[in-house]
Design a protein that fits this description.
Elements: E1 5-10, H1 20-37, E2 41-44, H2 58-68, E3 73-80, H3 86-99, E4 104-109, H4 114-117, H5 124-142, E5 147-150, E6 155-159, E7 172-177, H6 182-190, E8 193-196, H7 203-207, H8 209-223, E9 232-240, H9 244-251, H10 255-265, H11 278-287, E10 291-294, H12 296-310, E11 315-319, H13 326-339, H14 351-391
Parallel strand pairs: 1-2, 1-11, 2-3, 3-4, 4-7, 7-8, 8-9, 9-10, 9-11
Antiparallel strand pairs: 5-6
């Protein structure tokens, strides 16, 4: 397989009532940690209500994170483009592209929380309709076009960018999808990537994976675009530890708060989760195919399952959460980098397979080679003794 990239989708999720300043600092530290561990991407969410997903401007967060990191790419996950003037969305992303020297990415969506859009007088239907119009304007601006357009919320008159993107011809752009074909349809229309946020959150999302990419390819062909599975990103849930029992103990820290948010606070039924007690929640994640709480072997099996169901994709994004305390959370990411990534990277022969094969070759010849080593020592010792005798 092609090199599978790994990253995080950072909404983020923090328990309401905690110190928000410290929570945001933990988010920045997590992105730093992922950069050090070799993760490829971090996508940062935009939310404005409900007290849990605290980042209101992913662009500002990305600017801060970029100064703390060296190589990880940073995307808006997602910019709720119906909330913004499309000209300013494009302008801000081009600026970030220059500031990060090409490490920025634009994720587009309608916005997941109705409690956000309602403050602007927009219904969930409105945001989806506006997204289609606004995304078209953004793509035209990024291609260098001059746009005059009247939308329901904004008026553009001879609008154009005053900077070209740093990345040629443009930075990565991806459209969010949960279960419906709306996101895949728009991604294909514009030749953009796909962010399957609902890839493992619902059975419908999982079942729709292969169909979604089919929609992307069909729409792309219709509009004359070429798309690649490398630009398809799947979002899933994981927490791993050295043992399954340790992973279960770890998530006692915060998984109930996370479930409570989706069950009783966030009006986002696409992220429906089931379970009222700790063990029911763990079993739901593992048994419903939603994710993996356990060991690195469990995590590898989940990634492989998604690969097989989808037919192949470009990046596995781990939905960030605070099921475990910060130390155990960072350790989970480390274990995945150390023991999961190598099985999906390296080409036709993965990095893991290559080193395991080298180890096996050495094992199979060890006895003979060890004997040869001993014989070499004996031969050189005998030769030295002979030299001493001849010189005396």
């Amino acid at each position: 397989m092609d090199r599978l990239r790994f990253g995080t989708f950072l909404a983020p999720f923090h328990p309401a009532g905690e110190n928000p300043t410290l929570a945001l600092q933990r988010d920045l530290e997590l992105v730093e940690h992922l950069d050090a561990c070799g993760y490829d991407e971090a996508w940062i969410g935009e939310h404005h209500s409900a007290g849990t997903e605290l980042i209101a401007s992913p662009e500002i967060f990305i600017a801060a994170a970029a100064e703390r990191t060296r190589r990880i790419k940073l995307g808006t996950g997602v910019t709720s483009i119906a909330y913004h003037n499309p000209l300013w969305v494009a302008e801000r992303m081009v600026l970030l592209d220059h500031l990060t020297r090409g490490r920025t990415m634009l994720g587009c969506g309608p916005g997941s929380l109705p409690s956000d859009s309602m403050m602007l007088g927009l219904t969930p239907t409105d945001t989806r309709e506006l997204m289609e119009v606004d995304l078209d304007i953004i793509m035209r601006l990024l291609r260098g076009e001059t746009v005059t357009e009247q939308t329901r919320t904004h008026s553009l008159v001879d609008a154009r960018l005053h900077l070209r993107p740093y990345t040629e011809p443009c930075f990565d752009i991806a459209v969010a999808a949960v279960a419906s074909p709306t996101g895949p349809r728009l991604a294909g229309r514009h030749g953009a990537g796909l962010l399957s946020i609902g890839a493992t959150m619902t059975q419908d999302g999982f079942d729709a994976l292969a169909h979604h990419w089919g929609v992307v390819e069909e729409r792309a062909a219709h509009y004359g675009h070429t798309v690649s599975r490398r630009d398809w990103r799947l979002v899933g849930l994981m927490h791993v530890a050295e043992t399954r029992e340790q992973a279960y103990r770890d998530v006692e820290y915060g998984i109930e708060t996370w479930f409570d948010y989706f069950q009783k606070t966030a009006a986002f039924p696409q992220m429906a989760v089931e379970g009222n007690r700790l063990r029911e929640m763990i079993d739901f994640i593992n048994e419903a195919g939603v994710g993996a709480i356990g060991t690195v072997e469990d995590a590898r099996a989940q990634v492989q399952r998604l690969w097989d169901q989808s037919g192949g994709f470009g990046c596995m994004l781990l939905l960030a959460h605070e099921w475990a305390d910060p130390a155990a959370t960072k350790r989970s990411y480390e274990l995945i980098a150390q023991h999961v990534m190598p099985h999906f990277q390296g080409g036709a022969v993965s990095h893991a397979d290559q080193t395991l094969a080298a180890k096996q070759r050495a094992r199979s010849t060890r006895e003979d080679y060890a004997a040869a080593q001993l014989q070499a020592v004996a031969t050189m010792t005998e030769r030295y003794e002979k030299e001493k005798t001849e010189q005396s």
